[in-house]
Known about the structure:
The protein is mainly β. It has five helices and 32 strands. The strands form eight sheets. Strands 11-12-14-15-16-21-20-19-18 form a nine-stranded antiparallel sheet, with no helix packed on it. The chain has a five-stranded antiparallel sheet with strand order 1-25-24-23-22, with no helix packed on it. It has a four-stranded antiparallel sheet with strand order 2-28-27-26. β29 and β30 form a beta hairpin. The model is unreliable at 1-23 and 479-492 (pLDDT under 50).
Amino acid sequence: MKVKSSLAKIVAATxxxxxxxxxxxxxxxxxxxxxxxxxxxxxNHINELTQPxxxxxxxxxxxxxxxxxxxxxxxxxVVRTGSGNGQSMFDMIAYDPSGKFLFIxxxxxxxxxxxxxxxxxxxxxxLFSGDEQGPAGDWSNDYGAFDPARFTPNGTVWLxxxxxxxxxVIEVVNPFADPADIEIREVHSIANVSHEGIFFSKQDKxxxxxxxxxxxxxxxxxxxxxxxxxxxxxxxxxxxxxFDSSEASSNWNATSSERTGLATWLPxxxxxxxxxxxxxxxxxxQGNGRSAADEVGGTPYGxxxxxxxxxxxxxxxxxxxxxxxxxxxxxxxxxxxxKAIVREFASDAxxxxxxxxxxxxxxxxxxxxxxxxxxGNIYIIEDAPNSSDVGGDIWFVRDIDGDGEGESIxxxxxxxxxxxxxxxxxxxxAKPTQFVVAVQHPDSTNIEVNPEGFxxxxxxxxxxxxxxxxxxxxxxxxxxxxxxxYRRHYERTCSNMSDFNFTYLLKxxxxxxxxxxxxxxxxH
Length: 524
């Protein structure tokens, strides 16, 4: 990768500052990776209350809010339905462009809703929630398992139903209004599937990518007739050219079937949105989009959950997709409106771990969520703890040449809250050193067993003071060449530790840090 050309390709944030993510696919490692997964602690242990993640040196973490804090304050509100530790389930958080508000979806079996959390005021308000009549067969005013929340280029918030409800996408039209004035509507142009990953294209403002979180789920795109109008357009499903599409729903993990390589976007509807399949992909029910995709020959994957959109070093847009059941993350290079190339971006089986650093004993288990920082680096967030005793992890992917195939994954964070998983990792669009992560469904959420439980919570991290890797003659950031004698020669690959400092890398990429330190901005 040519450094000069790669820096030139770093672009500004999307419409209205939707995100501040860079154009190319990553940098070198800027932290000292972990060497093992965390041991989990009992509910309300001091670790859960003060520092639920084991993190590399210098990365700060502070609690923003929790179920316990919200419910102790009569001026705040939160969704709690059902029983057990799934009573609230904070999931994939959305930042607003200013970085002042978080929109938190609630992944409850019914009565799902959306909260708006003000960082400045430290208050959480439920904007709307379902009436909990869905399990009885009436979803007309009920919603299930909201997983993704996305702030759209139109200044609205999208929510998708994952494993409960009818596979709908719901739009909050006025997300900054008072809860009594909130308006919502269903987005009928998006197929009914098990939603989790939804992302807006950065190159083509008319295109939206999404996936079906199911074993046999496919990858879709919706192309609007008119930019900014989500109501009309054409839907496509991705098909790898070499894949045997017969009995697609039963061979998503068959080793004999190719699911990487050159691929084609097959039309699922015509340009007016009229289905081309016998099954109506927009009919209520999560399986309808899936059945329609199978009918036209879409390629299935093992629970494709989250997505991220970036840009490769060659300038092409890339869609990253986490396939949980496969322990794999794919990269899909967008060649044009019809063709793409699917590659394995990172996997537990084939991608080295902590390459060039002390090894880790951790495995990449159930890759679920994805996040992207302002430099284009991708982070993989695991779905669940590795066991009842060992917490789940977050991994950094090194793809410094920006070709869509990671050279190595690095152990970034590990959670130590009992029964919990990490979710909703997202970087602050106004300050690129900061990101948030939610602790979802810890055992402390179950107030029937833990009456004073801390519960689901949101934590704020900052990379500004992260301790970078060593940079010395015989350090880990050097490569040897020559023979196998004990007197090997070394080639310098850095000049000092600042070469791997996250803030320094931001400055090199064109981000300016104001004197008052309240936010960062991209130079134009």
